[in-house]
Amino acid sequence: MWTTKTFLTKTKRGNIIKIVREHYLRDDLLCGSAACNTCPHKDDEFVLDGKPESICSLYSYPHYLILDTNVVLHQIDVLEEDALSNVIILQTVLEEVKHQNTAIYQRLLEIIANKKRKFYSFVNEHHKDTYIERNPGEKQNDRNDRAIRKAAAWYETHLSINSVVGQFPKIVLLTDDENNRKIAQEEGIVCCSIKDYVENVTGFIGLLDKLSKNVAPEACSKDALYPAHLTPAQIHEGIRGGKLHQGTFRASRDNFLEGTAVINGFEKPILLQGHSGINRAVDGDSIAVEIFPEEEWRRPMDIVLEDKADDDPGDQLEEEAVLLKNTKPVEKGDDEITPTGRVVGIIRRKWRQYCGILMKSKFPGATRHLFVPAEKRIPRVRIETRQSDVLASQRILVALDSWPRNSRYPLGHFVRALGKIGDKNAENEVILLEHDVPHARFSEAVLACLPPNDWTIPEEEIKKRVDLRSECICSVDPPGCTDIDDALHAKALPGNTEDGLKRYEVGVHIADVTHFVRPNTALDKEAANRSTTVYLVGRRIDMVPDLLSSNLCSLRGGEERLAFSCVWEVDENANILHTKFHKSVIKSAAAMTYEEAQIAIDDKSRNDAIVSSLRILNALAKKLNRKRLDNGALSLSSPEIRFQIDSETHDPVEVQAKKILDTNSMVEEFMLLANISVAQRLAAEFPQCALLRRHPAPPPANFHTFLKAAKQQGFDLDVSTNKAFSKSLDAAVIPGRPFFNTLLRIMATRCMQQAQYFSSGSKTVEEYYHYGLACPIYTHFTSPIRRYADVIVHRLLAASIGCDVTHATLLDTKVANSVCDNLNYRHRQAQYAGRASVTMNTHILFNKRVEVELASVLAVKRNAVHVLIPKYGLEGPLYLPSDKFTYNEEEHIQTCGDIVLKTFDELTVRLSLDSSNLQHRKLVFELVKPHIPGFSVDIMEVEDSKAETEKDQKKRKEETPAKSSKKSKKK
Q1: How confident is the model over 16-30, as pLDDT tens digits?
Q2: Where among 177, 192, 210 does a domain terminate?
Q3: What is the DSSP letter of 458?
Q4: What one-character DSSP code corresponds to residue 515?
Q5: What are the residue boundaries of the PIN domain, all occurrences included (predicted)?
Q6: Cβ atoms < 10 Å from Cβ of 425
Q7: Of 922, 923, 916, 920, which is closest to residue 395 (Cα–Cα)?
Q8: What is the model's pTM?
Q9: Any idea what DSSP says for residue 138?
Q10: Tens digit of pLDDT for each residue in 927-959?
Q11: Structure letter (DSSP) for residue 763
């Protein structure tokens, strides 16, 4: 049978149209219960047990659970535990969850797919006995509650009539809606809240800890600590009227009483200060902001301030005196004036699960404790657990539930333990989870898309391609690299140009990943979700399975591989005469490290084909680099380090700044050239959907502090254009301080905005510009093994030269924009994860180790100077006592007698590790020189601490051989 659904909708022109849709109803849909003797089930269609065992003391009889939507949305962590089984998920609930939260919807689907869990999905919206129409004037939510009750009542009747067992399973409806429970009870349906049910479950320790503390945030007005949030309707009206603004909240890493809101139309982020100004916003939330009048605008606080309470301070907020003391209203014309405002409402929470440690209550037997997140931007969280003795030594995962007005901290619940604090696997897991890096094993569906392990290139595929196996092609990569994306070749061509210049052929050959990763397959969807390979210290999280990343797609030396080639004809001045693209087959003559390639180039006794190719490439690369710099490209810098890893323990044993050789620049120049050439081709062929990469020019406000610091060193930098800026940086040199110019470039990098992927149809041609590279158009083509952006670019390029066909999603601008959003997010998170891994390994390295090194001042704060150790690329705060130092907030300098500390100054510091706070172990920087009596570390103390450290290291080394021999005997 069928029924009809009628909708009235308004068109863009304002016309009202009626839409009628047929809705088919059936009477042969299965109930899924093994207790039923009527529904024509097959053996594998019985999901629910015939006589389920009750685990809840409230109900001694066998029963099935039916859940309403809010139970699924708020209690998914409880549902993922093995405790609850024989659960009926109605189609009404499934569709509501999908509409409200896709992440929870996916988690629910995974539970339903696990046959051991016995979750049955019942299509109540298409069953003739459970489908209901929406009544006139009835809210959709009320209609759905009624549909859930109707299905629960039907199941109860259906099983009582058609059961094959003596005592048929009953139905228990779980709902936290008090009104829904009241109506259900009046209708004769057994129901209770999820909290009551779980509290009476026996045999599952820790299940109660996972209950969500979902308290209505504005309901708790008693003893309120925070201002009430506006309602959604008030927020909408305020934004529409221009009184309020929508933005994204970003908490400060250095000051828990400060944050900012990024709002369109404002050059600077809006400053939010104090508990009431931040008003329960959490980093990442979409918020409504009221901006104060200009006379109330302030400077950000020049202070490092942490929430250091050793125990739960209760529901009280510290006085805001520290705020008033460290921030002052600014006068008009001050270049550091910052628009200031306050959070008046939450538009959308961006909460996720957070990693951290449990701070046990000091009261014996207490169940309420504080959770300290690993991410400093996230506030502490109150959770309830009866496992505090066990969890205190573990890294744990916690979910946020709500933040009532009368609670200093948000409320949350325990999700799971990750492992012991300090265990390297657990710490790596924390990094991956904190940065939302997909790192689960590749699914069977993904692995099924791969070719066999012994796959070789079919002869018919070779015939379709340009055969370059005879060319002298080689790759140049970092040591230990197994996912080799790119290889190069160069050779002289006969004859000269019309101007009498020598001619060369130069080729960049990129792994043809798209031959194996076909559109819309499980492999493609997984790669699109991951978007990038993530590099941690000693570990790599691949975008595609290892068979492709380290084998079939990796351009290893001496092996035939499929490639996508970009080949130029150039003259000796690196001017491009002709460009061509084609799919190819190559056989790399050598896979070299940067250092090996550099040695080969410098070895005058070598004149073989590989070295000849490298020398041509190196000479042309220098000319390309000069052209880019003359055009205004910025040569910036960032502190990069490389760890030496112990082969047995996998712990770092030494760290040093990365060396940059000519061969690094050689490879970079030709990768840049290939990316630019491909971008030009794609923009011409696909003006609406080409995937490109832009780098917006930084707003002038970003440079204020940087320019002031440079002026203190005697340099007036011109940042009016990237070309002028590049020339200024080149000229800013201090004789005798070779690192100064590098430091200046490191600081300049931090003034930049992030580069972004975008779809060509979403921006004007002028917005395509890449500020850092000083080029009008750019993309990523050269690393498809580790970047999904390059996979899309390969597909577009292949379609443009007729090597492959286009497909619908490739040309869909909405899909392209969505892909770019995910690419930008994953790329940013991968960078943060890599930095966190470096920090973790640095802490391991400096455990029981003390070093004295030269440091450079990166920034001057009210209570600290931020320093960088060039040798290690490490940075952090060196705290200064207020009784010895005077802070000049206009010039950003610290003074102690005749000693003045300012940005870019050189200091000598002692570097050690403070492990007193397990959650936030940190490097401690102590001043050695200049010497300040009563503050600087005494030089004799430095020598003694170093001698003690070296003694400990020697002792550990002496013990290592014995441990190694013991291991070998076990083998």
Answers
A1: 776 666 778 888 889
A2: 210
A3: -
A4: G
A5: 63-182
A6: 11
A7: 920
A8: 0.84
A9: -
A10: 999 999 889 988 666 666 555 655 555 555 555
A11: S
